[in-house]
Amino acid sequence: MRKYLAEFLGTFILVFVGTGSVVYSAATTPSPITIALAFGLALIGAIYAFAHISGAHFNPAVSLSMAIQKRLSWLEFVGYVIAQLLGALVASLAVYGGVSAYLKSSTVTQALSGQKMTVQQFVDIAGLGQTNFSNGQAVTAFLFEFVLTFLFVLIISIVTKLANVPAPLVIGLILAAFIIVALPITGGAFNPARALSPVIFVKGNALGHVWVYVVADLLGGALAAFAANYFNKDVNTAA
């Protein structure tokens, strides 16, 4: 149970901080760097806190890869994914709940010039930090998510096997870098739980596109498992 709770909390931290950085900067001009760093730093902190308990996956694509590599049992995989999805869902609900207070902040009231806006009106316009792509760009979005998720999970699978490597820092920083690259194309999910949870509340166009993230990210994680088995041969593993 401790493992599943760790996965729930870690995924909550990642999604709440990451998508919250998007939502609560909507009245100003969101910076790709600050958004990417929010996700990356949240992931670094969560890994340091929970890696010794669950391995700190916080991502169904990572858990799938670890199960294929036999670093996680398939029974644990199911529990991990359920915990991750619940953590992401609660995080999006928490971000949604914070919109009411955000609308009362001086930043928003100045941007609206005193006009009133309901929480649902704000979410309809600004969203909840969901990932999405332009209509007609499904193939491009799929390839971006697939390739970058593959590379992301492969890096995770390799650095977590190496001794004397600050794996949390490497993983968090590479996530931030990949998000900066993918943000204008797909929003940079690389994580089915992160992609799914906000669209449950915003629906619309993003909900119709979410399958791209789920399929591409899981396939990228699965392929990374086989590549990791090849690259991790005869390496000195971490203690």
Automatic annotation (TrEMBL):
Statement: the UniProt record of this protein carries the keyword Membrane: yes
PROSITE patterns in the cross-refs: MIP
SUPFAM superfamilies hit by this protein: Aquaporin-like (SSF81338)
Keyword RNA-binding: no
Chief site of localization: membrane
Annotated InterPro entries: Aquaporin-like, Aquaporin_transptr, MIP, MIP_CS
UniProt keyword terms in alphabetical order: Cell membrane, Membrane, Transmembrane, Transmembrane helix, Transport
Transmembrane segments: 7-27, 33-53, 74-96, 138-160, 167-190, 210-231
A matching Pfam family: MIP
Topology with respect to the bilayer: Multi-pass membrane protein
Location within or outside the cell: Cell membrane
Family: Belongs to the MIP/aquaporin (TC 1.A.8) family.
Record-given protein name: Glycerol transporter
